[in-house]
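Why does this matter for the project? Reviewers at the last site visit asked to see concrete outputs rather than summary tables. In response, this paragraph embeds two records directly. Each consists of the residue sequence and, immediately after it, the corresponding structure tokens. Nothing has been edited or filtered.
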Amino acid sequence: MDPFEDTLRRLRETFHAGHTRPAEFRAAQLRGLGHFLQDNKQLLHDALAQDLHKSAFESEVSEVAISQGEVTLALRNLRAWMKDEHVPKNLATQLDSAFIRKEPFGLVLIIAPWNYPLNLTLVPLVGALAAGNCVVLKPSEISKSIEKVLAEELPRYLDQSSPNLGRIINQKQFQRLRALLGCGRVAIGGQSDECDRYIAPTVLVDVQETEPVMQEEIFGPILPIMNVWGVDEAIEFINRREKPLALYAFSNSSQVVRRILAQTSSGGFCGNDGFMHMTLASLPFGGVGASGIGRYHGKFSFDTFSHHRACLLRSPGMEKLNAIRYPPHSPRRLRVLLVAMEARGCSCTLL
């Protein structure tokens, strides 16, 4: 599917699911926009200087402050703006209710010019978000520096992703996961909504091995990325830690995938995918070492929860054959007995 078509489809699904309508959601988006302006003020000033040679004074007055003011105003008045507006009635409608309800359009496209590239992008964005819309934002491609900042930084502060994405199980786990977002640097995602216990799918880069996100099972939509020099270092990194429940190796080279499979140990392994090995009842699922004991799925589950009792029933009529085991012993009897005790492909036994 074309990526633009896919984006539009997801945004329409989000709107039709009613995700953007509650005042709490709208306010969270506006607060995120405000945080974007505060956290990236110097970056925005630098971008405006590169694009238009604006001084810090002019950038603050004509771009940043106006945008921040719009956010503050919308947050202060959001619930009042959302209320139904009752209008005067004539004599024939005195017993009726007449009002104007402000409904979001749904999916909004904002195309910004280059002359005030921040102001004329964010001010209409404030209104569109406050009104409960999903937004496709198109900064001017002429003001390249501001376009780059908006494209790379702004999505981290606003809810993108979809009603199809899950939520965190409870507040305790939400707070634990949100704290992990401080590890490394957010490259993709990073948005969160405490009221909805939502954390966007997030990619962290520049992560250090000693950081908390690398010390525990995450159980959330956070993917930390550590850079290594090559496959050797990656394998060494895996092998000096506890054996994982599952190991996923992604590579265009089948040799790389097979090498990682051969030189590491894990409960399960999947090449060029994640999770799919769990869909096969014919494959056991379970850990090894610190990642777990036992295995399940299909008959493996039955075997895990069964004691495998060793049993052998012999006929009393075979006792004469047992004579070679009893004294007096001889080298010949020993040779015969050892041959009889050797593992055989057949299912019978001599003794």
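We now turn to the second protein, recorded in exactly the same manner.
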Amino acid sequence: MAHGLLQSHNKKEDLEDIGMRYLKELLSRSFFQDLTFGMVGMETFYFKMHDLMHDLALLVNSDCQSIPKRVRHLSFAAANALRNDFSSLLSYLGRLRTIFFSTDDEKTSQSFVESCFSKSQFLRVLNLRESALEVCPRKMGNLKHMRYLDLSRNSKIKKLPKSICELQSLQTLDLEGCLELEELPKDIRYLVILRVFALTTKQKSLQESGIRSLGSLRCLTISGCRDLEHLFEEIEQLSLLRTLLIHSYDDRKNTRPRLRRVFIKEITQLLELPQWLLQCCTDTLHTLVIGDCPNFMALPGSLKDLEALETLAIRGCPKLSSLPEDMHHLTTLKLLAIGGCPALSERCKPPTGEDWPKIAHITQIELDDEIIKSSDI
């Protein structure tokens, strides 16, 4: 995608779908082999180059100290290569379209990275994943043709230069695992054609981050944000979003999003809440609001595990007809509001409604705007 190789006669077809079609074609022709799948629900695959293709690649590539002028795609296989004197290569950097730096514990040469940014003005793909980079070059905004930028797992980066928001051609930005990143640049909203965005940040709130203005987003990943308490509103502006993934960066460290309030509104396709949404905040979530989801049918049984829940509001969900059996375990629940759910409201009416015993302990209950106090029953 970054190199403009995906073509289709159907202008309405998403580039991601075209790419998937290409991938399946290459697999069917044995160009790739040993296909394995990534995370469930994510269109992520791992595969190897066919043995014969690999042998051919070895023939046309060599361990060299000079770059032929015709080369457009460059990968440094090891960090120690970056400590060599590559001053003779700098004059050829202007022709490069791709640079992959090594994945290594050793520190990548900051000066060489700076040179790449200043001289590779036609660069489209730059992978600095796990390169031990500490400071991003300020001249990043000069790379006007950049489509794919991977800065993931650079745990020492604290700030991004403002110029990153000048990359108007950027389609993919990966900041996952940048554990010390203090905040996103204020003008991130100007990356209007960004399709894939993965981030880790120390921010407590993403409300003012500008993410909601990224109307071309297809995939948004928020991971390892240990201090995150508030996402952002108006997610409906991300009308092309296909995948939203929120998870801890390293489960072994027992880090989880500490969500306190979750509002879900006007999602026509929503049938039930995903289990992970409640499992990640069992001891912090105190407000859950579900509104105007006409096909929403069931609350999960794990609702009983929300030991801090104080407010539960459900409105405009006509297909929701009953409450989970263990609702009486929600001893912290102080307010239950139900409206626009005819069948559910009928089951919750005191004292004969079938679901009334499940909720009789709640201090205040609102059924279709009628306030009912359990102490009065």
